[in-house]
Predict the structure.
Amino acid sequence: MSRSLSCLPLALGLAMGCAPTFEDRPWRVDEARVLAVAATPAEARPGEGVTLTALVADPDGEVPLAPQWTVCTQPRSIDERTGVSRECALGTALMPVGNPAFIPGGACALFGPNPPPVVGDEPPRRPADPDPSGGYFLPVGVGVSSLELQGFGFVRLRCDLAGATRAVFDDWEQRYASNLEPSVEGVSLLDVGGTSVGPGETVTLEAVIDPSAAEPYVVYDASLGAIVDRREVLTVHWYVTDGELDRGRQTWDGDDASPPAVQWRAPETEASVAGWVVVVDDRGGTSWASFAVEVR
Amino acid sequence: MSSLLAAWIVTRALAPTVVEEPAPAEPVVAEPVVVEPLAAAPEPLPVVAPRLITFVQASRPPDSGTQSVAVLVSLDIDAQGRVQAVELVESGGDAFDAAAIAAVRQFEFEPAREGNTPIAVQIRYRYVFDELVPPVEPELPAEPEPLTIDDAEVVRGPRIDAQPAQLELAAAEAERLAGVQGDAIKAAQTLGGVGRPAAGQQGLVIWGMSPTDTRTYVDEIPMPRAFHLGGTRSILPSPMVDSVVLVPGGYGPAYGRSLGGYLDIRTRAPRSEDDPHRTGGYARLDTIDASLGVDTRVAERGAVSLGVRRSIARQTYGALIPDSSVPLVPLPDSWDYQTKSVVQVSSRDEIEILGFGAHDRVSRGIPSLTPDTRFSERRQAGFHRLALRVHRQHDSGRSVVFTGWAGLDDDQWSQQFDQVQADSSARAWRGGLRLREHRRLASFLVLRWGIDLEVDHTVSARSGAVTLPPHEGDLQVFGQPPGDRVGDDTWTTIRAGLGTYSSLRFELWSDRLTLEPGLRLEPMVVAGDRIMPVRPIEPEIGFTEVDVAVDPRLELGIAPAKGWSLRAAGGRYRRAPDPANLSPIFGNPRLAPAQALHAIVGVEGQVTPWLELVLTGVWLRAYDLSARANEPTPPVAQALVSAGDGRSYGGQATARIEPTAAVFTWLTYAWSRAERRDPGSTGWRPFDFDQTHVAQALAGWRHRSGVELGGRVSLASGNPRTPVVGIVANARHGGFDPIFGEQGSERLPLYFAASGRIAWARSFAWGDLRTWLDVQNLTSRRNAEEVFYSSDYGSRGYVTGLPILPSLGIEVRR
């Protein structure tokens, strides 16, 4: 990732000044990193088992490994903007789990809509807040000690609807379908034959995704006290070990006529470039596909 | 520019220097000038005293005997030579007091001057009813005698009823300070105890208290803020402002509902009847905005002024911004209006009708070379105020002021970071009544009491990220996504506070010792529509919280020697919870009022005729501040708790140097620490706005040709920030989350800015012309305003503000 610094005008109020703009390349895999974590099934109830898979890559490509899996045991405080609490990020509130991993029995009370346990005469405690899809997630840690890597994935919890009337509860139980992983069939290189491109050449990378991957689902709107129909939007993340992408992230709702695609400019020198497309749906389902390009 | 110093009033809370004037009258006769040198008098400065040009004879009360009677009064004379206030100092009996006061209120003076600049002064005047020789002849109108007032005895600012540590700037001088771009109210940022404002900051950080803890009043009417969004402009154009008063703390019981100080903006009176032009106005244009105002006399006793202003920054600075950056640059779109009508109902009654309003719309983004990390923010906010004020000056010397007002505040705000959005809105109807009376009970005792009622009804709505808007003390970095947790709530809040207050001011030892204990008693009611989050399976339950504040206040002043004074003030202060924090989902409906204790001591001395020193020490302690609950699963509807602590302490030294009447220099250095202690924590951390060192030098020179030069140099410690010491990958959004180090353990770099101003003013037969060039940040230093990280937190830089920024303006007034 480039560290060079440039400057764009910025005004805070009328105080026109300057903000640093890094030549950020979030899509560039220039060191070992966790790109994705998937759970199968993509949504599970407490006590159910899920199979966890991590996509870890470095500049040489995907790293085959058997990571250490943990689950976070400390929810975030309200002001924490991060995916996990500070305690979990520091590794002080992690519990090792196997793979397949079983969702802890109290997950819906600690990370879900059920009231957290109280001691004695304590007042009822605040349940977790949902994400925009109305979902709740169990943070799952993936550690690779040999690479000193730490990352977190999130398994969507299938919890009972809390705070709704009986009729709404029954309706939701009937209509809500657990999330499925979005299927990614692969990546196509348009405008070129095969998987070879010339140095500096720009090609279009297109993700081949089944439009049905953007599933319909229902979400409970607490302010309305009613169930609302939604359809997933897919977030497509692109990663490459070399070259330049015009963007690293885009969204796709399945109805778009054109599949998600990005422009990739090959490096100026001959190289073997690895790449991945990671698709995450609104409800946290994750899948990915890899591709390789020879630059010569 | 020497009048600038004269206009900057540092209240000593002690007896002001006074002068007694003879009053000619028949049968009232003038008594020789008697000067009473009092302790707190500054050394004589070259001031041309006011001259009485219209004398009004008092009628001797019937059946009042034939003896000679004297009544000593204190007169506040404004820069137009009008008598603004009369206070009885020594009584000659109720009937004589009333007659004398009624007469002197109609006096007119040629205003006191410092150089060529009219200034407001306070003098004492002894009205003498001479002994009658029977038979009594019909009273004859008396001719005014030319009067002279010893320059040395003109009170150059201090008012007997001012607050300790009060700082006042006359607008006519304040707008001439370098770096304020012609904005008189913005000059408050240069006053002692005020922290260096961050770019975009709309409030004042006074002695380490939150910007929301300093209230803003315009003619005693509360305003939601002193500055337009972005902080570049204040809410009133300078031609509509008479003076700006900043009380940083330790104030008396007349004010409350804030933990910090307050800013009182006093508007300029419309045209007086002795103005040579019955109608006038101003037109003002600079690179930030354009404003226009008119004021005119209406009939015999009335006057009306009206002003409007519109930002033009989009047309000026916007043209300098590259097209690619236009969406990223939040040039505010602002307008405001002001109107003030005055009717002199009688010699002692005056009615004012005031209207104010402002509206802002601004959007901004954080620049990124990639579309992955884009951030955008939009906000629009406005307010309106309508008020009625009645002044009555009783014959006995009592003064009563009634203020009634109503208004509407509207604020809408939205943020979007990629796919995460947060929206917030609040619409508040507000109103209030204020009644205050000032009565002298004895020659050494003044009673002040009043009623201060405020009510607001706020409907708030918020949806989106629960972490937004950020709360003081939140761990975050500039531009960090708000997280994936969302909430949704709409709530209604009603707050009402009925403050009653009184104080007794003892003036002892020839006014060398003043002591004013006071008490503010204020029942506060906070009611809301829901105490718990909406759940269809449960009934909605509202709430009503009642708190009765009993807040003692005390002011003490001692003048041990001529030109020197010691002052001390303190008390307890209380603020009702902010409606924005009373959501059962985003806040806590049962937040308690926050409290603060203030203790301020000061020494002020006129070391030489051209050097004045002021030393001030401050200690503030705040309790029950609203703060984030320090647990991952707090009780329901308690995302915020009233368990935060705060403390500020420090001192300031100011030297005001005026070697000649045309030159002034202020040197100020303040050292302070402002800290907070979060719920559940045992240690103190730096307050987000803490600035340990703030130093400032201001200088000005005014030539008789109308040319003015000014300069300002500011140094300030950078605000605390929390470093990022590690990262973890977040597979859901494909990026990284920061791991923070010790909170507030690093600071932004030292702030330094130099500003300059050159201006020229001239009077013509048709009016006055002024033009100026104000240049902020002359060295174009890139002062850090925020730390900005790359997406992997591997690189960081600073968001900088304000490169060299010239502002060219021109104004015509008549």
